[in-house]
């Protein structure tokens, strides 16, 4: 089953011709509408005319998250806000989020990309789909919501959390599709079992994504919930979910190649690697108007297979994300950069610049403990001041990260010191 068979089964030549045409358009669009890109492209001597084949993309400089941060909030938008109909955001590397904007056309293309992937995974208009991603600035929920609605499925926007009610509705509505992060799906399964209703659920399909999931974990969740689950990839800077996703054959995630041009690079030398190599994924958005991206460095590690899939789709398939080239963590589906935490801590007196992040998983839910050293022993005498400091740090971390943390103030000089690169992150999730 296809959502748009013609587009999804184009020949490689047709895909590449379309990508080239769109890349030329994009270069022109960016230099005309976005001063940042105008200057970058001019400096690099790149105009649409200089792009004669897809390989000529190499003349275009890479874009990074720092470029988005430096142009906060709307500096990289390709349209004035009167043409922007939606804004989403994800974690930035410091205090301010990474903000993205969508025009009406962007929302339409996003919906189409999502609808294709929903159909590829086996969703139909007969399905009742419960979206248990958090609604809000996060792109996951509304992305899937629009795509599923477009194919005619009945969408239930429960959002994440309130798990018992979530399960009650799942049972009462006889929901057939669960949209969630794999870890939340696992938690839902466990809770439903505890509530004694696991056999009363009618789930058949899981649309998962936004964080990594091993094959072992996936089969465990599939067994518990009685679903067939697909992996879906995307990121806010590129659109949200809808960039790529698995079909029923689950041999890689089909990339919506008419909207995204992928390259794989060596993150050290920044050289483009030969097709099929493993490396950092770099993505150029081919149709986006709100906030187009030229050669965006995702920091995600993958490899791309260009052979036609058994499902008949000709769009290339990327492997599951194999890791990151930076220290970004996904905690309860939310991107967390240690640098965000550091920038919060640096605003406080009375604490030393020594901290440790301990991540654990209990009952399928991630927990983040931030251990911070006191600057000296003076506060130890004063419980209320200590509590005030702890509460203030907790509050600021919640504001910046958007998730709950446990803040522990520890005695001066009690955390380990490092001779070389500090190892501030203790991720114990795979050990529990
Ligand atoms: O996580 C978009 C999304 C929502 C994708 C729902 C799929 C489903 P961000 O919050 O900006 O966007 O986080 C993007 O999450 O660079 C990856 O490191 C990671 N990520 C996203 N999908 C996957 C996946 C959404 N399927 C960052 N497997 C990306 C592994 C993933 N990591």
Task: Record keyword descriptors for this entry.
432 residues, alpha/beta, twelve-stranded mixed beta sheet, four-stranded mixed beta sheet, 11 helices, 20 strands, globular, binds 5'-O-[hydroxy(phenylacetyl)phosphoryl]adenosine
Description of the structure:
- By secondary structure, the chain is α/β, with parallel strands linked by helices.
- Helices cover 31% and strands 25% of the residues.
- The chain has helices spanning 5-8, 12-33, 35-44, 65-70, 104-121, 139-150, 163-173, 182-194, 215-225, 338-345, 383-401; strands at 86-90, 98-102, 128-131, 154-156, 177-180, 205-209, 228-235, 240-246, 253-255, 260-265, 278-285, 296-305, 317-318, 323-324, 329-331, 334-336, 351-362, 365-374, 406-410, 425-427.
- The strands form four sheets. Strands 3, 4, 5, 6, 7, 8, 9, 10, 11, 12, 13 and 14 form a twelve-stranded mixed sheet that branches.
- α2 (12-33) packs across α3.
- The model has no long low-confidence stretch (mean pLDDT 95).
- 5'-O-[hydroxy(phenylacetyl)phosphoryl]adenosine is lined by residues 90, 133, 139-140, 209-212, 231-236, 240-241, 298, 300, 321, 324, 335.
């Amino acid at each position: 089953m296809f959502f748009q068979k013609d587009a999804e089964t184009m020949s490689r030549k047709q895909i590449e011709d379309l990508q080239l045409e769109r890349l030329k358009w994009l270069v022109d669009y960016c230099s005309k509408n976005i001063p940042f890109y105008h200057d970058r492209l001019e400096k690099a001597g790149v105009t649409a005319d200089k792009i004669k084949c897809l390989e000529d993309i190499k003349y275009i400089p890479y874009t990074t998250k720092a470029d988005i941060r430096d142009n906060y909030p709307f500096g990289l938008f390709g349209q004035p806000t009167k043409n922007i109909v939606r804004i989403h955001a994800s974690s930035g590397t410091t205090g301010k989020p990474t903000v993205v904007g969508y025009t009406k056309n962007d929302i339409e293309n996003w919906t189409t990309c999502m609808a294709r992937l929903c159909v590829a995974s086996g969703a139909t208009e007969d399905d009742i789909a419960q979206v248990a991603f958090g609604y809000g600035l996060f792109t996951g929920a509304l992305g899937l919501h629009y795509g599923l609605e477009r194919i005619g499925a009945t969408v239930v926007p429960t959002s994440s959390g309130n798990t018992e009610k979530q399960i009650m509705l799942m049972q009462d509505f006889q929901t057939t599709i669960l949209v969630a992060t794999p870890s939340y799906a696992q938690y839902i399964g466990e809770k439903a079992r505890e509530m004694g209703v696991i056999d009363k659920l009618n789930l058949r399909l899981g649309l998962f994504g936004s964080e990594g999931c091993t094959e072992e974990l996936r089969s465990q969740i599939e067994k518990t919930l009685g679903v067939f689950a697909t992996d879906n990839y995307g990121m806010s800077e590129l659109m949200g979910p809808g960039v790529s996703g698995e079909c029923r054959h689950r041999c890689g995630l089909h990339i919506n190649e008419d909207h995204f041009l992928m390259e794989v690079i060596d993150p050290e030398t920044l050289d483009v690697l030969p097709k099929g190599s493993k490396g950092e994924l770099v993505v150029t958005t081919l149709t986006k108007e709100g906030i187009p991206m030229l050669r965006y460095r995702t920091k995600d590690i993958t490899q791309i297979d260009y052979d036609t899939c058994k499902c008949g789709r000709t769009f290339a398939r990327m492997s599951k994300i194999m890791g990151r080239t930076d220290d970004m963590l996904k905690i309860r589906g939310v991107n967390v950069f240690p640098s965000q935490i550091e920038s919060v801590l640096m605003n406080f007196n009375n604490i030393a610049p020594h901290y440790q992040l301990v991540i654990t998983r209990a009952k399928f839910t991630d927990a983040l403990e931030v251990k911070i050293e006191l600057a000296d022993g003076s506060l130890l005498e004063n419980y209320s001041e200590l509590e005030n400091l702890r509460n203030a740090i907790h509050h600021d971390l919640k504001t910046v990260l958007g998730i709950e943390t446990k803040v522990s103030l520890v005695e001066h000089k009690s955390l380990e010191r490092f001779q070389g690169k500090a190892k501030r992150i203790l991720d114990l999730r795979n050990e529990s």
